[in-house]
Design a protein that fits this description.
This protein is an all-alpha fold. It has helices at 6-11, 17-54, 56-59, 64-85, 88-111, 114-126. The radius of gyration is 32 Å and the shape is flat.
């Protein structure tokens, strides 16, 4: 069973045309608010993920633990800046998006299987080249032996 996406769940939660129109507007407003609040964090996480994906040959595979540590460092720095400078609502919003983007990057690397990709990458980096495998096939196929089997008539008459 597949869970419908948020748009579908938001719009089709009640029957009737009037209800659908109201829930469509409610869902659109809710998604716009989510985009305004957390959109930069989502864009930052996907941007960093894409950048690392493009540079994976030279930088190596991205791992979730360093990204989670970067998110924790960003959170500590945001707390220090917030305590020292009291940046206001816009400053808190920007710092929260940096922390959220880094945390989402750690989640993306875990969700999309980078640890498994890292193991495969390590195997290719440390493996020595092997000679190609050669399979020897006989030039002539062996003759097939066909046996004729005769079966006696096994039909019986009923009394």
């Amino acid at each position: 069973m597949v869970t419908p996406n948020r748009w579908h769940r938001g719009i089709y939660r009640e029957e009737g045309t009037g209800n659908r129109l109201g829930w469509t507007l409610t869902t659109a407003l809710r998604e716009a608010a989510v985009l305004a609040v957390a959109g930069p964090a989502t864009a930052l996480s996907w941007g960093l993920y894409g950048l690392w994906y493009r540079q994976r040959e030279s930088w190596g595979p991205l791992r979730p633990l360093p990204a989670a540590i970067a998110a924790a460092v960003a959170a500590v720095l945001a707390a220090i800046v917030g305590w020292v400078a009291s940046p206001g609502l816009l400053g808190w919003w920007l710092m929260a998006n940096v922390v959220g983007g880094m945390a989402r990057l750690a989640w993306l690397t875990r969700a999309y299987g980078w640890p498994a990709a890292e193991a495969a990458w390590k195997r290719t980096q440390t493996r020595t080249r092997r000679a190609p495998t050669v399979v020897q096939v006989p030039k002539e196929a062996p003759r097939r032996v066909i046996r004729v089997v005769r079966v006696k008539n096994t039909e019986t008459k009923e009394n």
